[in-house]
Amino acid sequence: xxxxxxxxxxxxxxxxxxxxxxxxxxxxxxxxxxxxxxxxxxxxxxxxxxxxxxxxxxxxxxxxxxxxxxxxxxxxxxxxxxxxxxxxxxxxxxxxxxxxxxxxxxxxxxxxxxxxxxxxxxxxxxxxxxxxxxxxx
Length: 137
Prior knowledge:
Blueprint: H1 2-7, E1 20-22, H2 27-37, E2 41-45, E3 54-57, H3 58-66, H4 77-80, H5 94-103, E4 108-112, E5 117-122, H6 123-130
Helix pairs in contact: 2-3
């Protein structure tokens, strides 16, 4: 079973319902978007396409909103997002993806097909797929 898990392709596990946000949106609006969509991260579309994509996570928002630096109570997504982001192609193995996630200390990685973001794979997606719950032997 473990070998099959390692060889599974990212495209077979990724969440295809990626949610996007603009970098000029307030952090409070980003919180509401995450709650509305039921997600823990949003892929950030840059105003300048040459800048590429970014990502903002629930942790980024909490850290900035709960413990802001002086004068930063009204920050924007661009103030806390990570960019550039590390992506993987849909045809990479889960094993290779997990190695990359470990190397860069990431819990999720966007999936890029060479033209656009087509999915996102998180450690939760991997865990749920291969460890669905009690009674699995």
